[in-house]
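tool_call: predict_structure(chain=1)
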Amino acid sequence: MINALTEMLSSPLELSISLMFGFTLGCVFFLSLWWVVYRGLTSKRPALWFVGGFFIRMGICIFGFYLIADGNWQSLVSSLLGFILARPITKLLLDLIRKDDATKASIKDAA
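tool_result:
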């Protein structure tokens, strides 16, 4: 019985790797979402950007989760947690970039 339980639980290293992989997938997803919206709003064909970006992002994420899960639900949950954690960190990163760009623009205008 104990051997069956230890076989069911994943090692902490495996869960950490899947958490980092999920975080990476989340960063790729949310940064590409930001990029597609930025490009789509300035494009002559925004529908192509939005629909194409959606399918590419979904394909990458579904394939990535499929690879990392490998029939192990603990790895899937860990990677989903990393994916969810990537959103606020990506938002913070994008806010810092925008503030830096706004500061550079105001300095340039003042000069």
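agent: The CA atoms of residues 58 and 103 lie 35 Å apart. Proceeding to next step.
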